[in-house]
């Protein structure tokens, strides 16, 4: 039973009840062709993966992860100011309305740096240490602060496409840690401050923050290492994604929020 949820990369969810979650209006021929192609490519990417095919990976498979972890204190320091004003930040579904099938409240906040055709120079300028850290991530596609309020749960669902892998860098993890976790393909991981976890969101996954405090991570998608020629096809998909209706809509929503946010703060143009 598939649902379509469209974030920075269109995300196909598998959850309990079938719901038509396509954006309002008929999708363009381009979007329909794009989704058909990634359906075809998905299994081939798993077979061509240079890092294997599993729910959660070993950090040592990605040499740059250790360097990112050393920068966690500086990244967290920049996050702290945003946490204090997080009510002004956009909820995920406000940027991408189709996410409303898994979250429709104001308990999942975001602060976006980049993603499939979007690059927020203002947000990057506000967090220079984070911006420098992101420059060292090979194949970076998406990056934002992801903030879950106390008691927030994201139901079990699956991502659409394994041509990217996902990383969470723990920045603020409330206690008790065993009540704040992500489960991917049956493997449960409790975030730790300063520690990264890399996973494949094509596997069914869910998130719980069953604590009294907010949880915040740096959320990153990066290109999955693959053998040629699948590597080339994957890069074609990633380059084409920004032109889909869904991602263009998400970018427009973010741009509108950003203009309002910095106008109210009298930030830089």
What is the element layout, followed by pairings?
Elements: E1 2-6, E2 10-14, H1 29-48, H2 64-70, H3 72-84, H4 92-95, E3 108-115, E4 118-119, H5 121-126, H6 128-134, E5 140-148, E6 153-157, E7 164-172, E8 180-184, E9 187-190, E10 196-199, E11 205-209, E12 215-223, H7 230-240, H8 245-265
Antiparallel strand pairs: 1-2, 3-4, 3-5, 5-12, 6-11, 7-10, 7-12, 8-9, 8-11
What tags apply to this protein structure?
single chain, 269 residues, alpha+beta, Jelly Rolls, 6-stranded antiparallel β-sheet, 8 helices, disordered N terminus
Descriptive overview:
By secondary structure, the chain is α+β, with helices and mostly antiparallel strands. It has one domain (2-265): B-lactam Antibiotic, Isopenicillin N Synthase, Chain (Jelly Rolls), CATH 2.60.120.330. It is 33% helix and 26% strand. It is built from 8 helices and 12 strands. It has helices spanning 29-48, 64-70, 72-84, 92-95, 121-126, 128-134, 230-240, 245-265, and strands at 2-6, 10-14, 108-115, 118-119, 140-148, 153-157, 164-172, 180-184, 187-190, 196-199, 205-209, 215-223. The strands form 3 sheets. It has a 6-stranded antiparallel beta sheet with strand order 4-3-5-12-7-10. The protein has a 4-stranded antiparallel beta sheet with strand order 6-11-8-9, with no helix packed on it. A two-stranded antiparallel sheet has the order 1-2. β3 (108-115) and β4 (118-119) form a beta hairpin. α1 (29-48) runs antiparallel to α7. The radius of gyration is 18 Å and the shape is globular.
């Amino acid at each position: 039973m598939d649902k379509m949820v469209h974030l920075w990369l269109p995300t196909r969810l598998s959850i309990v009840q079938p719901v038509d979650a396509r954006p309002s209006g008929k999708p363009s021929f381009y979007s329909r062709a794009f989704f058909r192609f990634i359906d075809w490519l998905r299994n081939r990417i798993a077979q061509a993966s240079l890092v294997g095919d599993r729910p959660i990976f070993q950090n040592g498979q990605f040499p740059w992860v250790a360097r990112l972890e050393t920068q966690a204190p500086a990244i967290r320091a920049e996050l702290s100011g945003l946490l204090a004003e997080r009510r002004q930040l956009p909820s995920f579904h406000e940027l991408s309305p189709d996410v409303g099938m898994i979250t429709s409240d104001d308990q999942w906040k975001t602060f976006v740096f980049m993603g499939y055709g979007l690059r927020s120079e203002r947000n990057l300028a506000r967090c220079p240490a984070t911006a420098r850290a992101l420059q060292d991530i090979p194949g970076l596609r998406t990056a934002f602060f992801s903030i879950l309020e106390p008691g927030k749960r994201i139901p079990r669902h699956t991502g659409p496409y394994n041509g990217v892998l996902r990383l969470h860098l723990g920045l603020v993890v409330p206690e008790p840690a065993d009540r704040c976790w992500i489960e991917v393909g049956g493997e449960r991981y409790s975030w730790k401050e300063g520690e990264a976890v890399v996973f494949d969101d094509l596997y069914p996954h869910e998130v719980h923050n069953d604590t009294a405090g907010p949880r915040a991570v740096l959320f990153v998608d990066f290109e999955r290492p693959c053998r040629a020629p699948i590597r080339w096809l994957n890069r074609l998909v990633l380059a084409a994604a920004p032109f889909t209706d869904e991602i263009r809509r998400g970018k427009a929503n973010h741009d509108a929020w950003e203009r309002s946010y910095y106008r109210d703060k009298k930030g830089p143009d």
